[in-house]
Design goal:
Largest sheet: 5 strands, parallel
Structural class: alpha/beta
CATH superfamily: P-loop containing nucleotide triphosphate hydrolases
Number of domains: 1
Radius of gyration: 18 Å
Strand order of the largest sheet: 2-3-1-4-5
Number of strands: 5
Strand content: 15-25%
Helix content: 40-55%
CATH topology: Rossmann fold
Distance between the termini: 19 Å
CATH architecture: 3-Layer(aba) Sandwich
Length: about 210
């Protein structure tokens, strides 16, 4: 049994969740872990908003990264068992059989957590311009909602800070234009991942 771990990172509202979900739907024996599922309780955040002391939560400290890492390691040890526990159907009748299992890790800070960086076989990062990102963020409903001015005071500055930190740690990230058509974007990443899978299956040479 062989494994592939694909990272889909990027700015908030950059399209990474959509890409990761569609990639998961296209690739047999794949599993998806989303970083947003590991946010710590928002009770303190809600209280902070109500008291006017809102703080940015776009930092690693706002996430249970140790728990996320443990889940990824659990998948690596036994992908099939992990997927069954999570209710993800394996596709043993597919051309891949049980030869290769794929984990897609999606999130806005997945490359800023050093313990995970050596695990990715491929790293993608979706980019969108400031104005598009701000418009998309303003059109989404968050619980709790963003306070006035939150994007310019916190979201965008933290994105620039986190990106600079990420680029200082890694040099093999594939930066992708998040404004591409969804089908075009999916086709590009899917082709890349399937080529890795075929190499692992011994069908092609690297």
């Amino acid at each position: 049994m062989k494994t592939v771990i694909v990272g889909i990172g990027g700015i908030t509202n950059g399209g990474k969740s959509t890409l990761a979900t569609r990639l998961h739907q296209q690739i047999p024996n794949s599993c998806l872990i989303a970083q947003d599922a590991y946010f710590k309780t928002c009770f303190l955040l809600v209280n902070a908003i109500q008291s006017g002391l809102f703080q940015c939560c776009l930092v690693l400290e706002a996430l249970y990264m140790d728990q996320m890492t443990a889940h990824i390691e659990s998948w690596r040890r036994d992908p099939e068992s992990f997927m069954k526990q999570k209710g993800v159907q394996t596709m043993n009748e597919s051309p891949l059989g049980r030869e290769v299992f794929v984990l897609i890790v999606e999130g806005f800070l997945i490359y800023n957590y050093r313990p995970l960086n050596s695990l990715y076989d491929k790293k993608y990062f979706l980019e969108v311009p400031y104005d598009i990102c701000k418009t998309r963020r303003s059109n989404r409903v968050y619980v709790p909602p963003d306070p006035p001015g939150y994007f310019d005071r916190h979201v965008w500055p933290m994105y620039l800070k986190n990106r600079k930190e990420m680029e200082a740690m890694l040099s093999d990230i594939v930066f992708v234009d998040g404004l591409q058509e969804k089908e075009q974007l999916l086709a590009f990443v899917y082709k890349d991942v399937m080529e890795i899978i075929e190499v692992l299956r011994g069908k092609t040479t690297p």
